[in-house]
Amino acid sequence: MMHIGEKISVLASFTGGIRPIKFKWSGKLITVQDVTYTWRSREGQASVHHFSVTDGASLYELSFHTQSLVWKLENIEV
Amino acid sequence: MSKIIMCVDMDAFFASVEQQSNPRLRGKPIAVIGSGGRTVITTSSYEARQFGVKTGMTTYEAKKLCPHLIFVVGNNAKYTHTCSELGKIYARFTPHVEIYSVDEAFLDVTGTHHLFGGIEAMGKTLKGLIRDRFGINCTIGAGPNILIAKLASDLAKPDGLMWVTPDRVTSLLEDLPVKKLWGVGRHTEKKLEAMGIMTCGELGRAPVSILRRRFGFIGEMLKAMGMGICDRSVVMHEEDPKSIGHGMTLPRDIYERDQIEMYILQLSEMVGRRARKHGYTGRKVSLTIRYADFHTFTKQTTLSSCTNDTHAIYRSALSILNTIRLRDRIRLLGVRLSHLEKESGQVALFDEMRRRRALLEAVDEVNDRFGEYNLTWASYRRKLEIPRVISPAWRPGGVKNIDIR
């Protein structure tokens, strides 16, 4: 996977857990077709939620930092 | 009433998680590797195993066996998080859970299996929950003790469920090779072979006096294992650690003194930090060195008083290094603190000690809040290398819970 590490805007559902729905990257609006895996890690007192998602064509790894409330596109595999 | 123990063993754990994360990898031969330059295979998928790819092989060896093998750099946070979540699923079935390793757990279901429709129904429900939540498979073995439960899970792999009732133990073991028993390695297997003992049945019938003469007190345990007897119960709470240590295979073999000292300081900080986090101090410091030719040795020193201060550990490790005349480049370094005691909370008598303790507490507090190694010693002079290899001893909680990225 290629490391990106860029802040992104994400439309997400927070009902019954966090689920990214769409995100903007490189001027494109990408619709999440499937969340293939989720996991959490810690950064000090904050927890970071990670999501492996696919739009049907590429695989993306998104992260959401619960303290800074920042979403990032961490990695991509086209 | 006979006990009923379940062994839940995840199938090709790291590889299955990666195949689940990335749909393109499903059904393909993949191998999970570390991120370092000198990495080996940590797990391979069942598709890769068909070609003979095994854990511990170098990428070169594996690629020779399976040219279309796909290497995936492991993501340890994924595996440790999954392990912690699996623990929550197990706890729905019984409070008696031992997370034995990152991909293996023992459940004492003696008093709860009837609530779930019996062993087989319970096993099926548990497997289904894991598959629904993570999309990965596990194998469950059940038996009257941990030894038989573990054996059953090994025999039923992959994606299996096997229950060995007490009356079936003897017949199951009769013709089974001794190496199938948990804890019997190649070394012990060879020694047993030399005595004409090939199967578990033969081991169970062997005179204990002969086994004791050959293996010492382990001989009695081996005989009991051959008979399918094991007294070890499910351990829910981590016992007090005997030592706290870290080792590191270096990115390249080194000989330069300043480089060696930097890695020793780094390891000393990791040891000191973990000891302080869990309230332990230790009286013995040991330094392990592995040369490029894999010759490995450990030397230790005893301190005048117990410590968990990074620099006291570092200075002791350096004093050991000073006694060694290096004859080759170093491949691996390890620092360990042992003869542990729980911190007493004794107030330091001297100003310097008080200041030193306050400094360490301040550094630890910053790192607790903002993440490991955010504030650290300037003398590292370069970016710290956080451990990236999961020890089989990793646990979701306690002293064995190490921050691995």
- Structural class of the helices, strands and pairings of chain A? mainly beta
Name the chain pair whose interface involves the most residues.
Answer: A-B, 15 and 22 residues
Based on secondary structure, the structural category of chain B is alpha+beta
Helical proportion of chain B, percent range: 25-40%
Number of helical elements of chain B: 14
Task: Return residue spans of chain B where pLDDT drops below 50 for at least 5 consecutive residues.
Answer: none
Shape of chain A: globular
Give me the Rg of chain A, rounded: 12 Å
Kindly provide the radius of gyration of chain B, computed on alpha-carbon positions and rounded to a whole number of angstroms: 24 Å
* Assembly state (oligomeric): heterodimer
Q: Strand order, biggest sheet of chain A?
A: 3-2-1-7-6-5-4
Shape of chain B: globular
Q: What fraction, in percent, of the residue positions of chain A are helical? A: under 10%
Strand percentage of chain B lies at: 15-25%
Q: Spell the H/E element sequence of chain A.
A: EEEEEEE
Q: Low-confidence segments of chain A, ≥5 residues, pLDDT <50? A: none
SS elements, strand count of chain A: 7
- Please state the average pLDDT score of chain B: 91
- What's the story with the biggest beta sheet of chain A? 7 strands, antiparallel
